[in-house]
Amino acid sequence: MTEEFTNELSHPGMPSGLSSESAPPASAAAETTLGAEPEPVRAPWSLASAFPDPQSSEPSFPNPSFLELPGMNAATPPATAGRETAPLRIAVSALSDIGCVRTNNEDAFGYDESLGIFVICDGMGGMASGEIASSRAVAAIVNSFAGTAILDVPVSTRLLLAITAANSDVWENGQLPANRGMGTTAVVAALDGDKLILGNVGDSRAYILQDRQCVQLTVDHSYLNELIRNGTLTIENARSADLGGMESVITRAVGVSAEVQPDFFSVDLKPGTAVLLATDGLTRYLLPDEIAAVFSASPFESVCANLIEVAKQRGGQDNVTCLLLVALSA
To answer: Which residue has the higher pLDDT, 167 or 57?
Structure first.
């Protein structure tokens, strides 16, 4: 659960034998999966034994780039339809856990493999409003993306339309007295040929995992990140800084106003490239090199469960959700 929103700040190695069968099963009609929660693997997990050989080769990452989209006073990126690319498919595994302290789960995830759309959200609001916000946002994003499949527009534009649709849905439902003040983060990935287009609002993150390394792709819209960006804190001391409860405050969210401002990024895919979407219930407890260690040491179908297990061993004070994507040759 994301604790609070404020808009007062300026917004300045793949496991062997991996196959798409390890993802939750889809029906013959390619049914959209929303918030499925398979049983986590509860075998004892030792993070110390997961770290890779420090002599491993130097990493090589695709360069993520900011996409300037319509509605943000910027140009639309070129479509990828004309490129000659090797066909790719995506294996997906996802898991959500209530954590060790919360009594309800305000995280949600959903995806449609046939459409190539994947999303996680972390809701906020009193009573059950956080659950409502996150679940409605996930459904709106997947459904909107499906509805624009017939349009002759870039995937990046469809993703913008989907996030905008989610914002409108949550905002309108937030006008009900019982839901007043609700909102949610969102991090979304959409397959576009040999690229993955990422959109984010709030502090839920996307990471790329490649060559035994993990690098954050998205930029947090949070009070904590603003302090890092303006030099008040460093990345090294931010985790231990006492912010008087402000460490969970986000500066952008879906559904807290009539308009939303997502950021967009693009990452090149090749067979073996992995992308992890995660809420802050995971990322507050694991550093990128620890995420890479768990990924490298775990079977594909157990990565999310093992990441969540580490977060819970370290406190698990929030709901924890992650969704893992791995590109494979078609």
So the answer is: 167
Any residues with CB less than 8 A from the CB of 283 and at least 6 apart, and which? 203, 205
Give residue 230's pLDDT band: very low, low, confident or very high (50, 70, 90).
confident
Cα–Cα separations (whole angstroms), residue 318 to 50, 120, 222, 265? 24, 15, 17, 27
- The model carries a pTM of 0.77
Mapping DSSP to helix (H, G, I), strand (E, B) and coil, where does residue 316 land?
Answer: coil
**Residue 166, C-beta contacts closer than 8 angstroms, at least 6 positions apart:** 136, 137, 138, 140, 141, 144, 186, 254, 255
- What does the block give as tokens for 98? 């209530």
Question: What is the C-alpha to C-alpha distance for residues 136 and 252, in angstroms, rounded to an integer?
Answer: 18
CATH architecture of 63-71+86-220+251-329: 4-Layer Sandwich (3.60)
Q: CA–CA distance from 123 to each of 187, 210, 323 (Å)? A: 12, 29, 16
Question: From CA 313, how far away is CA 29, in angstroms rounded?
Answer: 39
Question: In the chain, where are the structural domains located?
Answer: 63-71+86-220+251-329
Q: Tens digits of per-residue pLDDT, 289-326?
A: 999 999 999 999 999 999 999 999 999 999 999 999 99
Q: How far apart are CA 66 and CA 231, in angstroms?
A: 23
